[in-house]
Write a structure and sequence with these properties.
With 234 residues, this protein is an all-alpha fold. 82% of the residues lie in helices and 0% in strands. It is built from 9 helices and no strands. The longest helix is centred in the middle third of the chain and has 35 residues. The chain is globular, with a radius of gyration of 21 Å. The relative contact order is 0.12.
Length: 234
């Protein structure tokens, strides 16, 4: 009776829908990967023995490789999204160009990232793997930058809309609630993008951040991704 209640509980059904999605599994793996990156750094900085650090280093490397494999082929989705954004009529010009830049940045990143999987997995060593990975990080950095600009611009637009609302009016109250909801969504995505920017900017030498900061930032953006995907699969 108790077992049946647990098995058929709505949360279990929700969990199954969540883990049935590739992005859902990826976000969970990403959270563990970046937390392990942070925790391995923390253990090293607090002078713990190598045998305690090794499992977290292994999680970081193996989950990164697993996620790299799961991303293979996803570049096509972003190339298509860039084409759709380019063909969209009536869209705000700034948001349109940011959408195109974001999607192309992600598409190029994923294309190069897929090639580097051959070397990372040991299938075929590549002499140019470091250059390929660096160019991949540059494309990811560009995509995140476009998305950050879009987020800041959207917040400015929402502020302009809010100033023109009469909150004493019934329709104004409804519109105000919609703006608050849109602002919260935009702020959450902006936080995620800023956290993610620490990863390519550190890899490219644009910022001098240690694994502790990058690991924590990656964990935060991953948890945001987990929560967002969980809501979508509700």
């Amino acid at each position: 009776m108790v077992a049946g209640a647990v098995i058929y509980h709505p949360t279990v059904e929700h969990y199954l829908r969540y883990v049935s999605t590739t992005i859902g599994r990826d976000k969970l793996l990403r959270t563990l990967q970046f937390f392990s990156r942070f925790y391995a750094w923390y253990l090293y900085r607090t002078n713990h023995p190598a045998r305690l650090i090794a499992p977290y280093e292994a999680i970081k490397k193996q989950f990164a490789l697993t996620r790299k494999a799961l991303r293979i082929g996803k570049n096509v989705e972003h190339f298509k999204a860039a084409a759709v954004a380019a063909d969209t009529k009536g869209m705000d010009a700034v948001l349109r160009y940011c959408a195109i830049g974001r999607q192309l940045g992600y598409a190029i990143y994923l294309s190069l990232d897929a090639v580097t999987y051959l070397d990372a997995s040991g299938i075929r060593p590549l002499a140019s793997v470091k250059n390929l990975q660096r160019e991949a990080y540059r494309a990811w950095f560009a995509g995140l930058t476009f998305n950050t600009v879009a987020g800041l611009y959207t917040l400015w637009q929402l502020r302009q809309r809010e100033q023109g609302i009469d909150k004493k009016d019934g329709e104004g109250v409804v519109e105000s609630k919609k703006i608050v909801k849109e602002r919260n969504t935009t702020n959450l995505q902006l936080i995620s993008d800023l956290c993610d920017l620490t990863i390519p900017s550190t890899a490219l030498g644009y910022a001098n951040l240690d694994d502790g900061i990058v690991g924590l930032a990656g964990t935060v953006s991953s948890l945001i991704g987990v929560w967002t995907t969980w809501k979508k699969t509700a």
